[in-house]
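>> Question from a student workshop board

For tomorrow's exercise we were told to take the sequence and the ligand below, predict the bound structure, and bring the output to class. My setup keeps failing. Could a helper post the expected result so I can at least see what it should look like? The ligand is magnesium ion.
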Amino acid sequence: MADTRAERIARLIEPLRVRPGSRVDLGKDFDPRYKADLRKQAGVELLRAGVSLLAEYQERLAAQSTFGVLLCLQALDAGGKDGTIRHVMSGVNPQGVKVSSFKVPSSEELDHDYLWRYARRLPARGDIAIFNRSHYEEVLVVRVHPENLERQRLPEHLRGPEIWDRRYREINNWERYLTDNGFKVVKVFLNLSREEQRVRFMKRIDLPEKNWKFSAADVRERRRWDDYQHAFSEMLSATSTKWAPWYVVPADRKWFARICTAAVLAHTLMDIDPQYPVVGEEAREDLQVARRELEDEAPDGVPADPYAAAHPG
Ligand code: AMP
Ligand code: MG
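>> Workshop helper replied:
Here is what the output should look like for this input. Compare the format with yours to find the bug.
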């Protein structure tokens, strides 16, 4: 049974995966409105199933405490990162999940190498970490707005145009290193159309309770749409690897984006297939000693083992 679940999930996300080594042209290769053959109604059911599946696997991941998982979420403004995190993680134990949101770097962060602040937020073994924005901002917003790079104060001779290829390589190597040490890295780009972004911005302007989500910078960034599409295409082409693939998730329909993101994470966890630790012979003998001691303490008229009494067979 677990197999058919795993197969369905694999089939859903396969068309979204960026094949390592392929050249991505975002506008041509990925449709933000794609929704497989799903309807919203069935989709909501599927998301519910996905969320409980994640809860089950996350518990095993935490119990085994051998692997960690890092999910990086990237998107343009209004791409739906916050809502996706809220929905996808709604069923999991908060103790095992750490969400980090990355904003404009602080002066302390700028005093370090560019991966420093991301490295500090990596998952521990047994944990799922979610990066709401990630080290990929370092080849996206920093590339589109070079003044960000100036603030990073790299030595003069290391600031040339080859910096982007170098960063792709450094990021790939870093993710490889993490993978080789038991930390799975998986990356989701929520792919929003220009028109859907306009619609969502309008909603943020129209509804007072959404106003806080909108800033004038958002329309300024929108004017650089083509530059961002280009930066995203280059980044996806260079950094989707066998060990840490990118998934381009169609984001114009929020419900579909959430299902796909849950599916990508579930696929990663199923691939790890974490197991509850099995205790050894000696530990089991200790359990029996403890059992006898606890049984002896049972008050009169109470079963020696209340759990076994309530669960016969
Ligand atoms: P938000 O996610 O809406 O809270 O906005 C966070 C802002 O921080 C976005 O405008 C990002 O472009 C910006 N940001 C995130 N990481 C970096 C970075 N490494 N350098 C410059 N700006 C960044
Ligand atoms: Mg914003």
